[in-house]
Amino acid sequence: MNNPDEQPMAWAKSSYSSGDGGQCVEWAPSVAVTGVVPVRDSKNPHGPALVFRASSWASFVSAVKGGEEPRA
Predict the structure, then answer these.
(1) Chain segment 25-45, per-residue pLDDT in tens
(2) Which residue intervals make up region (Disordered) (predicted)?
(3) Which of 48, 29, 32 is nearest to 40 (CA)?
(4) What span, in angstroms and rounded, lies between the C-alpha atoms of 51 and 72?
(5) Does an H or E element contain 55, and which?
(6) 25 three-state secondary structure
(7) Is the distance from CB of 42 to CB of 17 less than 8 angstroms?
(8) DSSP state of 7
(9) CA 24/CA 15 separation, integer angstroms
(10) How much is the pLDDT for 72?
């Protein structure tokens, strides 16, 4: 896969992001069908994106929704 920062894509903002523009996480759901999920900081849209396996991203999102604290 090419670098996700170089591909035009639609980004979705986390529903947990605050409305004041801080602490925003975005991901590209249209790319997730390829088995990977690009994730970026919306405050730096031209900066790098991290790329996770779709299954790992789904586990992370499920844990956060369930109230678990993210682990490294």
Answers:
(1) 888 888 767 889 999 988 888
(2) 1-20
(3) 48
(4) 15
(5) helix 54-65
(6) strand
(7) yes
(8) S
(9) 9
(10) 60
